[in-house]
Each structure stands twice: as structure tokens, then as C-alpha cells.
Amino acid sequence: MKRKSLPALSLLFLTVAIPALAQDDWSALEAMVPENPIKNAYFGETHVHTSFSLDAYIGGARLTPSDAYRFAKGQPVSVNNVQRRIGRPLDFAAVSDHAEFLGEMLSTQIPSAPGHYQEALAELRGLSDIETQRAWFVKYVISNMRSGEPEHPPFFAGLETTATAWEVYVVGAAEAHYEPGTFTSLIAFEWTSAPNAGNMHRNVIFRDNKVPDIPLSALDTTDEEELWEWMEEQEAAGSTLLAIPHNSNGSKGLMFEPIDNAGNPITREYAERRAKWEPLIEMMQIKGNSETHPGVSPNDEFANFENAESIATFSERFFRTDGFVRWAATKGLDYEQKLGANPWKLGFIGGTDNHNGTPSDVDEATYNGSHGVADGTIEQRREGEIDGWLLGPDANPGSLAGVWASKNTRSAIFDAMQSRETFATSGPRIQPRFFGGAMLQSNNDPVKLVMDGYANGVPMGGSLSALDGSPTFAVHALKDPIGANLDRVQIIKGWVDESGAPQERIINVVWSGDRMPDVNGKLPPVGNTVDPETATYSNAIGAAELFGHWTDDDFDPGQHALYYMRVIEIPTPRWTTYDAVRHGLPLLEDVAVWIQELAWTSPIWYSPEQ
């Protein structure tokens, strides 16, 4: 994409100059950043919205993409007239504003933009009470986007506004804030398809600044297969990109259908195409955890983590077995077995879907909402709802994206995503390492564990094949340096039975303290130091670091399988407890007082075929 000189109007919103750098210039700077051969854990955001998303603006968001990157870097911003600052800067971020109304948001915010002085946009800029804001949201966002045939509103001033918003404010902000080796800004957008209110959204992320002149939106097509076709066209034009689906828990069964959009059974070609363009899935966000559910995994004692049950009361988004990530990733093995390709070979990553323009604002202790006026006050968080989605107390701060990469550059971060060497956490900066192989050595030295893992096995996101004997898996987890201790590390194994039905087994690999599992392998609770009166906890229990190895004692070399690692913290106060104590209010009834935060690595897959 050619870099154009910025129009004067851009100076109103961009607080730093846009460097006119070509890809070769970034490549040269990236090459100067030293590499770590055993890789570093980098934490960031893949899903955040700013004032250039219509729904966020309606809710009161006034932070721009540039402001979002400033927040990610640790600089203060104002949210709902309150100064907000992330506790620790991020390593990377992708601002993923909705592609659907970028042009409209340019016209809304920039006086010199076409259409700025239309009566409807003057009304939009003047929205001040929550009822009027909700009416706008329902009319222009919910009713339109869920209609099956969404379209631009009457105040759209033409594709020129979309192109300018994209190049100047989305791409331009990412270019301005990229600091190879220090902070990585990834160019991105959200494609927001929601047929019949079933969530089919994808965040599209680019490896570099070779991007199209305009992004694809759900106003162009609501068909994800046409999104992949568009991505193929961008690849042919020189772009490198991928898509990350999210909120499968609210997809009404559409995210993991056994048929394509023509109604035909999934084919090998479909499976290979989807696996190429969608190597990752967002495990958890503000609107719930999509890993699994007690109704899907009744033997998983942690399946009730941040399920956001009230989603089922909005737009008939009833929870379904085929709406959860663990089920889909395991069911993918059935297709691999039958077709020779796995449509749902999904690595795991995190994101928030924050609509305040504050990337990875995930601290439970300081959480004060994520969707503008919908949850910007203590009253709204306790008694209100995030319109069209869930009740306020059911929301959570979102999850954090993690990657293992050799350095903090666009190419290294993106390549880690593409190879699925990724993980998600529910907020804390837990560092999980996970390796599998037939020749792994048992040791408790973290450096030797990693070196042995790369030399004699595969990391998270990798694949094993045609083993003669049982694979061994090495796990290592470090607590968040300023967070809670760790309770345990588990491995979740998935496979399908003869009928193709997903099966699962949960193994406690290593844990803190001197607890002993019972005959069924269930481990006693770690304990609980949470004081609900003060919203505090103590690291008097748990461990700062856990090592372990596990060999699959029920391995069938002729059966496809997957394995992923899950790390569990000791109990800590939930955001609702912190919120109540901070405001001198009683705890909410029927709302968890404490939680055990989680981290999930991408799976390691096993195939009998070479």
C-alpha cells in the first residue's frame, strides 16, 4: 500500500507524526533487534475498539487508535472523564476497529471530512443520556448488523471516507507507534458478521504494512468463506494476514457447523482453507470464556469459569455443545481422520473486546467497565447490562494474548501467531511453556527444559506424528511476577470415539503443596485466603513456579489426539468483589466472590500419519 501524505485534518487526532517508512525500512530495523533462540513471552492485545467503531462511539468512547496505542505503552488516557493507565505496558497490540462504519466515524469526528455537518451526525455527537444512546445502538448497530443484509446508514458519505479513516487513523496510528524491539503495533480490523444474531466475527491481522487500500466489512459480505476468498486476493497482492474468530459461545452453533455455507458437508478443500486462514481462536473475552461449560464438560471442576450465563437470555444465544472451543478443537480430529485435513486446528489466544479504547485493561482489582456508559458506573456494572449481550455482573475484564517469539517485532509476533506458539490468560501475566515428544528428558531446569523441548519435541501449536511409543509432555509455569501463586498445572487430552464424538480427559500433572490426588485423580483444593471484607488475598499458599512431566499412559498410536496445558492460580477476589469493597457496597448475591484465574496454551496435535 502506498503511503500518502497526511491531510491536515489528521492532525486533530494523531498526536505523533506518521513515519513514511516502506516495508524495507521496517525490515532493516527489525533485523537490528537481537534474537533470543529459546524465545521470550510477549503479552498483548488482539481485540480492542476505539472511537472509530460506531458502537464504541455511541457508548461514549473518544479515544482514537493512536490513543489506544499510547495506553498500551503505559501512557495515561481519559475514560469516562477519569484518568486511566495500564499497570504495566504491553509488548504488542492490534487495534481492531469494526470495518463496517469506519467512514461514518471519520465523518462524525473530523470537521473537514465529507458529511460532518449532517443532522444525524450532529445528533450522534450530542448523545448524552443512556436511553438515547441505546436507541441509536439498537437502530444503527444491532438491528442493522443482525438483519442478514446489513448496509451503510443514510449518513455514509462514500468510500473515500472509509479509505481515509483506514489509511490515516488505523494504519497510520499503527505505523506511528511501532518501535521494533520495544513495542509492536499490528495493523488490524474486525469483520463483524452476525447473521440472525449469531456471532461470526473475525479480527483480521496483518504481518506488516503491506495492506489493502480498504478493509473488507460485513456490509460487503456476511459470508466467512468470501472473507477467506478476499484474504486470498490480498495474499496474491503481497499481504500476509490471518483471521481470529471470537465469541464462539455466542455463535448460536454457526461457528463450527458440519456444513459449508452452501449447505454441503465439509470437504478437505474447505478444511485446508479454513485452517490456513484461521490458525487461532480467541479463548476468552469480556463476553465470556469459550473454552467449555459444565454442561459440556461435567467432569471438569474448572469448567464453570466466567461462563457469562446471561448470554443465553439475549437474542436466543443459547449455549450449545458445538459452540465451545474444546469441543470444536477435538471434533476437528474427526475431520482430520476422515478427510485428511482439520478445519479446526485452532491455537489459543486472548483478547478483550474492550470498547473504551484501552487495550488489555484486564486487572480485576481496578476494573471499571469496558463498554462506555453501559458499564461505566458502579450502578451499571451491578444492575445494568452490556446491551444486546449480557448482564453487567456477568462480564469480566477480558483475556490477555501471549506469544512465544524470538524478538518483539511485527514479523516475529505474527509468525508466532501463524505457527500457533501462542497462549491466553484470563488476565495475569502467567508464563506457560509446553512441549511434547517421544524423547523428552525429565528435568527441572527451565532453560534445559526449553532447549530439550525444541531439540527433541515440539512446542505448543506443534504436531507429532507416527510415534512408536507414548509421547511425554513437559510443562513449566511461572506466576505473574506481581500476581497470585499457582495452584496446579493440568493437561487436557482430547480424542474422538468410533462414532466421531469428542472425548476428553483432564490430568493434574503438577501442583503446589503436599496434596495427594484420590483414586480418580482428583486433587483436593489448594485452599483459599481471600478476605471478602477487604478484597485481599495472600500468597501463603500455592507456588511461584511449577515444573512437571507426564507420559500418556493410555496412548493409542493409531488414534488422532490433541493435548493442551492449563495453568490455574490460587483463589483471588473477582472484580465484583473489588468493586463492592471500593464503593462500600454489599457483595452481589449469586455472583462469585473469588475466582481462580487461568492460562491456556495452544494444543499439541498427534496424528498416526507422517
Textual characterization of the structure:
There is one protein chain. This protein is an alpha+beta fold and 610 residues long. 24% of the residues lie in helices and 21% in strands. The chain has 14 helices and 27 strands. Strands 1, 4, 5, 6, 7, 14, 15, 18, 20, 21, 23, 26 and 27 form a 13-stranded mixed beta sheet that branches. A four-stranded antiparallel beta sheet has the order 17-16-19-22, covered by helices on one side. Strands 2-3 form a two-stranded antiparallel ribbon. The protein starts with 22 loop residues before the first helix and ends with a strand. Mean pLDDT is 93; it is low at 1-20.
Biggest sheet architecture: 13 strands, mixed
Total helix count?
14
Question: N-to-C terminal Cα separation, in Å?
Answer: 40 Å
Strand content: 15-25%
Radius of gyration: 23 Å
Described by the principal axes of the CA atoms, the overall outline is: globular
Portion of residues in helices?
A: 10-25%
Poorly predicted segments: 1-20
Task: Kindly report the average pLDDT value.
Answer: 93
Number of beta-strand segments = 27
Given the helix and strand composition, which structural class is it? alpha+beta
Write a compact overview of the structure shown:
Helix content is about 25%, strand content about 20%. Strand 20 (about 485-495) and strand 21 form a beta hairpin.
Helix and strand topology:
Elements: H1 23-31, E1 40-45, H2 54-58, H3 65-72, E2 77-79, E3 82-84, E4 92-95, H4 102-109, H5 119-125, H6 130-145, H7 159-177, E5 184-191, E6 202-206, H8 224-236, E7 241-245, H9 268-277, E8 280-282, E9 284-285, E10 288-289, H10 325-339, E11 347-349, H11 378-383, E12 385-386, E13 390-391, E14 400-405, H12 410-418, E15 422-425, E16 431-437, H13 446-456, E17 458-459, E18 463-465, E19 472-478, E20 486-496, E21 502-511, E22 545-551, E23 561-569, E24 572-573, H14 575-582, E25 594-595, E26 598-601, E27 604-607
Parallel strand pairs: 1-4, 4-5, 8-11, 18-27
Antiparallel strand pairs: 1-14, 2-3, 5-6, 6-7, 9-10, 12-13, 14-15, 15-26, 16-17, 16-19, 19-22, 20-21, 20-23, 23-26, 23-27, 24-25
